[in-house]
From TrEMBL:
Coiled coil: none annotated. It comes from the Bacteria. Pathway: Nitrogen metabolism. Keywords: Heme, Iron, Isomerase, Metal-binding. Heme b binds at T27, K118, H150. Heme-binding protein able to scavenge peroxynitrite and to protect free L-tyrosine against peroxynitrite-mediated nitration, by acting as a peroxynitrite isomerase that converts peroxynitrite to nitrate. Therefore, this protein likely plays a role in peroxynitrite sensing and in the detoxification of reactive nitrogen and oxygen species (RNS and ROS, respectively). Is able to bind nitric oxide (NO) in vitro, but may act as a sensor of peroxynitrite levels in vivo. It holds the Pfam family THAP4_heme-bd. This is Peroxynitrite isomerase. Its EC number is 5.99.-.-. Binds 1 heme b group per subunit, that coordinates a highly solvent-exposed Fe(III) atom. Its cofactor is heme b. Residues 6-157 form the THAP4-like heme-binding domain. Belongs to the nitrobindin family.
Length: 163
């Protein structure tokens, strides 16, 4: 299936990415985590997105699941982008941003929470393709703290998108 032509600015994301990074926040100890992200398409003008993470021990073995999120990435005119994400913890986010070459910067426009979701107010994400690897950094404002670093990772492409 051909990729929709509107997706050209973000087509570099397509595929399965795996790697590791570091998480931390004032409400938690810093730790290493593993991650898998899959960007797919169905021929329409959006990418599907799934991410799952797990805590890693000192040897790099999986200890337990951490977070998961799913959503859609929609490119707009003039390399603007909209990203809709849903979390099983009762949080839904809409990010707005811009694509510049192989760099994507996103900021939350809307955050909606269920009554049982944690106090989460804003996010800022930066994704970039560097030497063939997908690098990203994620800042968040949550639990009464201002926007600050929460996670960063380096992911390697481990597979193409399977239709």
């Amino acid at each position: 299936m051909d990729v929709h032509p509107d997706l050209e600015p973000i087509a570099f994301l397509l595929g399965r990415w795996e790697g590791a990074g570091v998480i931390g926040y004032p409400t938690m100890e810093s730790a290493n985590f593993g991650q898998e992200i899959v960007f797919g398409h169905n021929g329409k003008p959006f990418l599907t997105y799934q991410s799952r993470t797990w805590l890693l021990d000192a040897e790099g073995a999986k200890v337990r699941p951490l977070s998961t999120e799913t959503g859609f990435w929609r490119i707009q005119p003039e390399r603007q982008i909209e990203v809709c994400l849903a979390h099983p913890t009762g949080i839904v986010e809409i990010y707005l941003g811009e694509v510049v070459f192989h760099k994507i910067e996103l900021r939350t426009d809307v955050v909606a929470r269920t009554t049982t979701a944690k106090d989460y107010n804003a996010g800022h994400r930066l994704y970039g393709l560097v030497n063939g690897n997908l690098m990203y950094a994620y800042d968040m404002a949550a639990m009464g703290h201002p926007l600050q670093s929460h996670a960063s990772a380096e992911l390697k492409r481990t597979g193409d998108f399977d239709e």
